[in-house]
Each structure stands twice: as C-alpha cells, then as structure tokens.
Amino acid sequence: MEHQLLTSEILKAAYLVHSNLGPGLLESAYEACLHYELIEKGFMAERQVAMPLVYKQIKLDTGYRIDILVNRLIVVEVKAVESFTDVHIAQMITYLKLSNCKIGLLLNFHVNSLKNGIKRIVY
User: Fold this and answer.
1) pLDDT for 1
2) Buried b vs exposed e over 10-26: b needs ≥16 C-beta within 10 Å?
3) Is the backbone of residue 12 left (phi > 0), alpha (psi -120 to 50) or beta?
4) Above pLDDT 70, what percent of the chain?
5) What is the 3-state secondary structure (H, E, C) of 35-98?
6) 10 Å Cβ neighbour count for 40?
7) Mind telling me which InterPro entries this protein's record contains (predicted)?
8) The whole model's pTM is what?
9) What is the DSSP letter of 103?
10) Could you give the 3-state DSSP secondary structure of residue 2?
C-alpha cells in the first residue's frame, strides 16, 4: 500500500479514536485503542516495537520502543501532551533512522480537535 494511502487510513483510525474518547486520557489508552482500530482495518500493526541501537559492531538494547509500527512502513508515536516539542520531533527522527522507515506520524490526543495534534515527519 502506498505511503500516502496508508497514512490516510492511520489518520482515519486516529480520528475515530479521538472522537470516541476525547482528550484527557493517558497515552497508553489512545495507543491501545488506535492499535485495535488498525488491526480491525486489516493492517499489520505492532505495538511497543523494540528498536536496538547498533554502534559499530555493538548492538545496544537501550530501551527505545516505537508505539505503533504499521505495515513495517509507518512509525506512529502517540502523545497526550500540551503541545509537541523539539524532543518529540527528535525522538521521531531517531525512530525513523533506527527502523529504516521514511514516514512518521506524531499524534497528540490531548487536543480538542485532532487536526491540531498531527505532525507528519519525513526522513
């Protein structure tokens, strides 16, 4: 499935979750519900995917975990924060590097309208 179409379907699922739950919950609740919706749509969605860091010949288990990896193509990071910061963007870029994915979606569910909580990052 093309990146743009896949991204669109992920966002549809995120909007559905946000419209049903609204803002104010923990990230883990939104993550679980979004994962459920993506599985229901027939996508290969994996939660809390470990991303080891390889430095030269050493594989370091540093505890990096992607919230949701969809079809091994799109990294989805779920947030419930006032607003995105540079740290969130840097984290996404790191996850894109480690996963060899090109597209990432930062989704902030702690907003009144989800359209104000979406950041697409291309690496």
Assistant:
1) 59
2) bbebbbbbbeeeeeeee
3) alpha
4) 99
5) HHHHHHCCCCEEEEEECCEEECCEEECCCCEEEEEECCCEEEEEECCCCCCHHHHHHHHHHHHH
6) 11
7) GxxExxY
8) 0.92
9) E
10) coil
